[in-house]
Design a protein that fits this description.
The complex is a heterodimer.
Chain A: E1 6-13, H1 18-28, E2 33-40, E3 46-53, H2 57-69, E4 73-79, E5 84-95, H3 99-112, E6 115-119, E7 123-130, H4 132-142, E8 146-152, E9 156-159
Antiparallel strand pairs in A: 1-3, 1-4, 2-3, 5-7, 5-8, 5-9, 6-7
Helix pairs in contact in A: 3-4
Chain B: E1 10-12, H1 13-23, E2 28-31, H2 38-44, E3 51-54, H3 58-72, E4 76-80, H4 84-87, H5 90-98, E5 103-109, H6 125-129, E6 135-139, H7 145-157, E7 163-169, H8 170-174, E8 176-178, H9 186-190, H10 198-210, E9 214-218, H11 220-225, H12 229-238, E10 242-244, H13 269-277, E11 280-284, H14 290-293, E12 304-309, E13 323-326, H15 329-336, H16 346-368, H17 375-385, E14 391-394, H18 398-406, E15 415-417, H19 427-437, E16 443-448, H20 449-452, H21 458-464, E17 469-475, H22 480-489, H23 504-511, E18 515-518, H24 521-533, E19 538-543, H25 567-572
Parallel strand pairs in B: 2-3, 2-4, 4-5, 5-7, 6-7, 9-10, 9-11, 11-12, 12-13, 14-15, 14-16, 16-17, 17-19, 18-19
Antiparallel strand pairs in B: 1-8
The chains are: A alpha+beta, B alpha/beta.
Chain lengths: 160, 573
């Protein structure tokens, strides 16, 4: 599931259509986006994006330069993993068939330091944060049970 | 700066649009009215300083604006209405984007309350034009018009120039707002790097000062930056041969001893051989386009490459340079000049003479001394009669290559064509746009029988405005460039390249443009004389050899070393 990823971090004006311009540029240059997260930054009016792609070093360098040309983009940079702290958040709904299931699931969750955020008779909803490998590992372990829904945010990152 | 409105005056959005154009120094607009931009046309009535040219199709408006921009160095401006009006601009925008032409297109949009409702003549102009513009805007509030237009004009001209679309909702045009003329956001100025650093200059200097076989490849950025003189001074100081890409032709006089022609697919022998032997290749304001380099891995194999360009994303995009510098070529060359030592290089320059004489024997002599009328002779004759001082606006295809190869350009910035996008039908509107922009030019439009029929309706615009352009129609009843490829690479299968053409003489009569037809060189000479003597527009139809080929040629995807110099080469290979 996890590929060798490059991190592109972008700061842009928070205006309608800016995300579209950024995504369009990735499509135009034939990139496949592995994950993209966006939200407000510490500066009012400025959005911050963490986008991961799987591409050659030259392609990524050129992409960052192309992004830097977008009028609404204040700054774009490529940052190696070593210079970042990064996490992603995943949510997972797992079905409970019997009591044994439930205790087994809870044991796995504890091991991964995930949390139960909702519980019904039929299912547990679990939240986990971590790097992609940790999320992947939890997913693999949960395959023994009934995964009803699974969603992950993709990487979001800060500079060390 | 001419002004009509006072700061703080309350006026309609449409009037603010016209006021901004006036303050930008725009004196001609190319456009077409419609339901969604009627308010702008109404306001235009109050601005007699701005001359509006009513084209016959919005694509014509876009190309004419490109011609205007090219001739004046100021942004070309188009008006178009919503929906089809705006979508018709798209080809012209893509053309301007590829060739870095400053342009501001103001399109009408349906009223803001109807946007997104699939209203009559509604199109998502922002979405459609995003890939073909440097930037674009949708304006739905009257008070946003002035700041957006000020920014749009600024962006179109600065850094790497390009087209900007401003889509303005009809209610924003009609509503009232207080007029404020603001300064552009300093962020847009600060983000540009125009100067080279001290270290960058030192690296360039050390490569050039130590080069044995240096070569300059200058591109359109040279003309856009507006400095052929410094380039020439640098070349003369170190005896560096200069080659000019198609869009850079006329940066230095063709007759200059250091001018070694145009590189590329149909370029000159010397300009294509030299990168194979050069030890330092100095690329300024160019982008290593595939038509210039051929197969990248076989391009300039021994050379250290210096690449200077204003656009950071061009450095390393197609070719990874040894020294890559982001900067305005004019500024960087001026920084460089005092550091370069004086050098002579007779043996290297002698090499070019060998290549030049090879091309003379194998190509020029054959083309120019053929027994029947050839396109090369027509272009050569125009060039001779105008002493290389006219402006050549070439279309796309064989005619474009003949125009580039056989014209002498003695005056700075006198060659326009659609280089990057290769838009057939470009030259007719671009040619009259150039003449409108700078009436002192003698404008010759070189176009084929295929291309002219793509924007033929603009003949009516030329007549209505009485624009004095001379049209050299090279008629071979073929889509010549495709036919040439079919002959050379597709076993002579002439698939869909023959054109059964209209009677161009009668067409001209219908439009009201005087014309002549020439089948021989003698007649061609006289027709060009007559065209030049006649006031107003004139068309000469030259009936040229049907199956002539442009040589030399580098087949698509081949390296520059695989250049076919003449037809004999192509048969033997």
């Amino acid at each position: 599931m996890t590929k060798e990823l490059s991190n592109i971090i972008i700061w842009s004006e928070n205006k309608p259509g800016v995300f579209f311009r950024i995504l369009w540029l990735f499509r135009r240059k034939q990139f496949n986006i592995e994950s993209a997260t966006v939200g407000h930054s510490e500066i009012p009016g400025i959005s911050r994006y963490t986008i991961t792609v799987s591409a050659s070093a030259e392609q990524v360098t050129n992409m960052v330069r192309q992004l830097g040309k977008l009028v609404n983009v204040m700054k774009a940079m490529e940052v190696p993993n070593e210079m970042l702290v990064y996490r992603e958040l995943a949510l997972m709904k797992v079905g409970i068939k019997n009591k044994r299931d439930k205790s087994d699931i809870l044991r796995v969750i504890e091991h991964f330091r995930a949390r139960v955020i909702n519980m019904t008779k039929e299912a547990l909803t679990i939240e986990i944060t971590g790097d992609e490998e940790k999320v992947d590992a939890l997913y693999e372990n949960m395959k023994d049970f009934t995964i009803i829904e699974f969603v992950r945010t993709g990487r979001t990152a800060l500079l060390k | 700066m001419k002004t009509r409105l006072k700061e703080g005056q309350k006026v309609q959005g449409a009037e603010i649009i016209c006021e901004c154009l006036l303050r930008e120094g725009i004196r001609a607009i190319f456009g077409y009215p419609g339901g969604a931009n009627i308010p702008i046309y109404d306001a235009l009535y109050k601005y007699p300083e701005i001359h509006h040219i009513l084209v016959r199709h919005e694509q014509g408006a876009a190309h004419a604006a490109e011609g205007y921009a090219w001739a004046t160095g100021r942004p070309g401006v188009c008006f178009a209405t919503s929906g089809p009006g705006a979508t018709n601009l798209v080809t012209g925008l893509a053309d301007a984007m590829m060739d870095s032409i400053p342009m501001v297109c103001i399109t009408g949009q349906v009223p803001s309350s109807l946007i997104g409702s699939d209203a009559f003549q509604e199109a998502d102009v922002l979405g459609i034009t995003l890939p073909v513009t440097k930037h674009n805007y949708l304006v739905t509030k009257t008070e946003d018009i002035a700041p957006v237009l000020i920014e749009a004009f600024h962006l179109s001209m600065t850094g790497r120039p390009g087209p900007v679309v401003v889509d303005i909702a009809k209610d924003a045009q009609a509503n009232y707002a207080t007029f404020h003329y603001t300064a552009v956001d300093p962020r847009h100025i600060e983000r540009l790097k125009t100067k080279a650093t001290k270290e960058e200059i030192e690296s360039i200097v050390s490569l050039l000062n130590n080069a044995q076989k240096p070569l300059i490849v200058a591109g359109h950025g040279m003309l856009l930056s507006g400095d052929g003189k410094t380039l020439l001074t640098i070349a003369e100081k170190q005896d560096i041969p200069i080659t000019l890409t198609q869009l850079a032709l006329s940066t230095i006089p063709s007759s200059h001893s250091l001018f070694m022609g145009m590189p590329g697919m149909h370029g000159n022998v010397a300009a294509n051989r030299a990168p194979l032997e050069a030890d330092v290749l100095f690329a300024v304001g160019m982008r290593f386009h595939d038509r210039v380099t051929g197969k990248v891995s076989a391009y300039a194999p021994q050379a250290k490459i210096i690449h200077v360009d204003i656009d950071p994303s061009e450095i390393g995009k197609n070719i990874r340079p040894d020294v890559g510098v982001v900067g305005d070529v004019k500024v960087v060359l001026k920084q460089l000049l005092p550091k370069l030592k004086q050098k002579k290089n007779p043996s290297w320059l002698a090499r070019f003479e060998t290549w030049k004489s090879e091309e003379k024997v194998k190509v020029y002599d054959r083309e120019l001394h053929a027994g029947h009328l050839k396109s090369a002779q027509v272009v050569d004759e125009i060039s001779k009669q105008t002493h290389g001082r006219s402006t050549i606006v070439a279309d796309v295809g064989q005619n474009q290559m003949y125009a580039a190869r056989y014209s002498q350009f003695e005056v700075y910035n006198t060659h326009f064509t659609s280089g990057g996008l290769g838009t057939m039908g470009f030259a007719l509107p671009a040619g009259f746009g150039a003449k409108v922009g700078d009436p002192t030019r003698e404008v010759w439009i070189v176009i084929g029988d295929g291309g002219i029929q793509m924007t033929l309706q603009e003949m009516a615009t030329i007549v209505q405005e009485n624009v004095e352009v001379k049209i050299a129609l090279l008629n071979n009843n073929y889509l010549g460039m495709v036919r040439q490829w079919q002959e050379l690479f597709y076993k002579g299968n002439y698939s869909e390249v023959h054109l059964q053409n209209p009677n161009f003489q009668k067409l001209c009569e219908g439009f009201g443009i005087p014309s002549l037809k020439a089948e021989t060189l003698t007649k061609a000479r006289k027709a060009i004389e007559k065209a030049r003597k006649t006031k107003g527009p004139f068309l000469v139809e030259f009936v040229v050899e049907a199956e002539e080929n442009v040589f030399p040629m580098i087949p698509a995807g081949a390296g520059i070393g695989e250049m076919i110099v003449s037809k004999d080469d192509s048969k033997s290979s």
